[in-house]
Amino acid sequence: MGIGAIIVGLILFGLQALIFYFIITDIIRINACSERVNGKVKSVTEEQEKHKDSKTGKTEYSYSYKVTFEYNYNGQTYESTRNYSNHCRYSRGDDAEIKINPRKPEETWTKDELKNLLGLSLSIPLFLFFDLIYIESFF
Q1: Model-level pTM?
Q2: Measured between alpha carbons, how far is 10 from 88 in angstroms, rounded to an integer?
Q3: Closest C-alpha among 63, 69, 61 to residue 43
């Protein structure tokens, strides 16, 4: 049980550290992006991925979307690309409100990313629960 428990503990720790890294970097980026600009959706690319269920043999599809925004700031044109794994609400030519980092105008975020951050943050209690179960198994 000793070696196996250490390996499982390291895997849990690595996964949690990775998720905390993404949460913290997103929070830092959201805080730095304080200026609102109006942009346009330059392009939307849909990517389809096939998944074959090993039990039923059914083929399922998942979709992801790459959205490129174009905006002007201080007389210069910038582009920013964002990936969305859920339903994409953007179409080419749509107006979009974008928040940018005034010190690095190529750094952006949109309000849809806030939903992703909240969803990721909700996994923290789940990890704490797994940690408690893991610790309890030793005592």
Answers
A1: 0.69
A2: 36
A3: 69
3-state helix/strand/coil string of 68-90: EEEEEECCEEEEEEEEECCCCCC
For the purposes of burial, counting CB atoms within 10 Å of the CB of 43, is it exposed (0-12), middle (13-18) or buried (19 or more)? Answer: middle
Nearest of 87, 105, 91 to residue 44 by alpha carbon: 91
Return the half-sphere exposure (C-beta side, CA atoms, 13 A cut-off) of residue 91: 0
Provide the 3-class DSSP secondary structure of residue 33: coil
**CB pairs under 8 A, 24+ apart, for 86-91?**
88/44, 88/46, 90/41, 90/44, 90/65, 91/41, 91/44
pLDDT averaged per 10 residues in sequence order, the chain, 139 residues: 73 84 85 92 90 82 90 94 81 92 91 72 78 73
Question: What are 86's two structure tokens?
Answer: 């859920």
Three-state DSSP state, 9: helix
Distance, in Å, from the CA atom of 52 to the CA atom of 64, rounded to the nearest integer, reads 17
